[in-house]
């Protein structure tokens, strides 16, 4: 059996939704299909939070927008009036729940992480039910199983949950597996699971990929297919580098590094569950479903090329903690790191020298992290320094740590175009080398690197 994930980009506009719903019977029978919300719906749901907090009067009109959007899709997709009415009933029930959440927010005037998760994941239920009824209207035998009934168990962390794979693997034997025996196609809303105590917990934005990977691992699927509107990973962002090329094979490690450092093809944590069970991930382009997209497995492929891809993210900033004898004072790193994580912030990476600890953070986390460190007593550092005019570039490929001269070639390509490198990290990962440049240098830097590693005329012969 396969687990297939259908992303929000494939559920954008009635034409594409219709096309997807007709692809499913051909390519999806006998399988589990994990879906994202219709394109833009998660943002609408989150946007409703502020409206509800501001003014009670804004709640019902907001719900009306959501209702209309889905009903319109239903009436254009479904062949039978009976199925439209049944979908309407499901939609009304889910909307009622959303209405209670929004009014609850307005009443308490306070947004908790628990409430944010409960609200933001509802779009996945609307879309899963929409596709279920659409396919039923075409005469297909299909069902919809919610994560709370499937028992997709998590560690209970709101906004960034981790799947409890052991508990979920046990649970699916009693839930999903028998359900699959009764339905040819089973839809599951992505993006969230439940804690042992029954709380809804999301996997962070874009988390449906991770849901699908967790379910694939729990049922020991033969493959995890990710349906998208692109073929998969490229040697660089084609919007920036016009001769960026398609990558047909990547290792789990390379995929994880690329996703973590910017390539927005997959949620960064997608490989975690499937890697443990050695399940391949295959990207399938729904515009071209018979073509093979990027395949991610434990084999890297393309051994002749050391570097697979050059990626970047502009969502980066650094917080430098200056202190003397960092290496001799093992406690200091844990004190400052704990202050940042206790404030609910995520540390992307840390680079430490004898005199300075540098934290790499999301732009939005820089100010709160700075404030969190300023509150530590007694003050464990000499000075703090913030910087946010940066971009992070990463070169990714399994061969990086084993082939000679890759780092040298990378930095001479950068130096040749007269760019100053602000920070380098090489070593923690065997498949990635990353460094920071001033953000004005992004285009120039990425072109120089891409030409150096991928332009066949400039490439030195393999050693
Ligand atoms: N709908 C959610 C989001 O927009 C989850 C997902 O699509 O993966 O983040
Ligand atoms: Mg996505």
Can you offer a commentary on this structure?
There is one protein chain. The longest helix has 28 residues, at 81-108. This protein has a domain at 2-229: Acetylglutamate kinase-like (Carbamate kinase), CATH 3.40.1160.10. It starts with a strand and ends in a 9-residue tail after the last helix. Strands 3-4-2-1-7-9-10-8 form an 8-stranded mixed sheet, with helices on both faces. Strands 11-16-18-17 form a 4-stranded antiparallel sheet, sandwiched between helices. With 463 residues, it is an alpha/beta fold. Helix 3 (59-77) runs parallel beside helix 6 (122-137) and helix 4 (81-108) runs antiparallel to helix 6. It has 16 helices and 18 strands. It binds aspartic acid and magnesium ion. Aspartic acid (ASP) is lined by residues 8, 36-37, 42, 123, 190-191, 205-208.
How would you summarize this macromolecular structure in one to three sentences?
By secondary structure, the protein is of the alpha/beta class. The chain has helices at 13-27, 41-54, 59-77, 81-108, 113-120, 122-137, 147-150, 165-172, 176-182, 208-218, 252-260, 271-276, 330-342, 363-374, 406-416, 442-454; strands at residues 2-6, 32-35, 142-144, 185-189, 192-194, 200-202, 223-228, 249-251, 280-285, 295-297, 309-313, 317-322, 347-352, 356-361, 383-387, 390-396, 421-426, 432-438. The strands form four sheets. It has an eight-stranded mixed β-sheet, with helices on both faces.
């Amino acid at each position: 059996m396969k687990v297939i994930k259908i992303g929000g980009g494939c559920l954008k506009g009635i034409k594409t939704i219709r096309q997807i719903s007709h692809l499913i019977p051909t390519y999806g029978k006998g399988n589990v299909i994990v879906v994202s919300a219709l394109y833009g719906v998660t943002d609408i749901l989150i946007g409703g939070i502020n409206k509800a907090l501001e003014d009670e009067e804004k709640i019902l009109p907001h719900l009306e927008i959501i209702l209309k959007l889905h009903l319109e899709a239903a009436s254009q997709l479904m062949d039978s009036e009976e199925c439209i009415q049944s979908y309407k009933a499901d939609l009304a029930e889910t909307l009622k729940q959303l209405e209670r959440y929004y009014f609850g927010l307005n009443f308490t005037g306070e947004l908790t992480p628990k409430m944010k998760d409960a609200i933001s994941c509802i779009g996945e239920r609307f879309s899963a039910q929409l596709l279920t009824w659409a396919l039923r209207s075409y005469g297909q035998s299909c069902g919809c199983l919610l994560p709370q009934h499937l028992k997709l168990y998590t560690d209970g962390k709101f906004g960034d949950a981790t799947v409890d794979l052991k508990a979920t693997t046990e649970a699916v034997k009693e839930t999903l597996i028998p359900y699959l025996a009764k339905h040819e196609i089973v839809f599951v809303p992505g993006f969230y699971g439940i804690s042992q105590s029954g709380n809804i917990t999301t996997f962070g934005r874009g988390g449906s990929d991770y849901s699908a990977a967790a379910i694939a691992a729990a049922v020991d699927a033969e493959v995890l297919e990710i349906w998208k509107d692109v073929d998969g990973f490229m040697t660089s962002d084609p919007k920036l580098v016009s001769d960026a090329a398609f990558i047909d094979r990547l290792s789990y490690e390379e995929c994880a590094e690329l996703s973590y450092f910017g390539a927005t093809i997959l949620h960064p944590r997608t490989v975690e569950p499937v890697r443990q069970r050695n399940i391949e991930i295959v990207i399938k382009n729904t515009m071209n479903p018979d073509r093979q997209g990027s395949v991610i497995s434990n084999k890297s492929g393309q051994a002749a090329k050391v570097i697979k891809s050059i990626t970047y993210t502009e969502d980066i900033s650094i917080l430098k903690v200056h202190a003397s004898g960092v290496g001799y004072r093992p406690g200091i790193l844990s004190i400052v790191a704990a202050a940042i994580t206790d404030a609910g912030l995520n540390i992307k990476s840390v680079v430490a020298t004898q005199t300075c600890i540098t934290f790499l953070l999301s732009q939005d986390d820089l100010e709160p992290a700075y404030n969190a460190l300023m509150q530590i007593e007694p003050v464990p550092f000499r000075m703090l320094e913030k910087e946010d005019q940066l971009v992070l570039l990463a070169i990714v490929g399994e061969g990086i740590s084993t082939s000679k001269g890759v780092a040298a070639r990378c930095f001479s390509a950068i130096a040749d175009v007269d760019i100053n490198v602000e920070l380098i990290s090489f070593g923690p990962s065997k498949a990635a080398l990353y460094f920071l440049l001033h953000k004005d240098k992004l285009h120039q830097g990425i072109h120089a690197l891409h030409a150096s590693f991928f332009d066949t005329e400039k490439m030195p012969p393999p050693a």
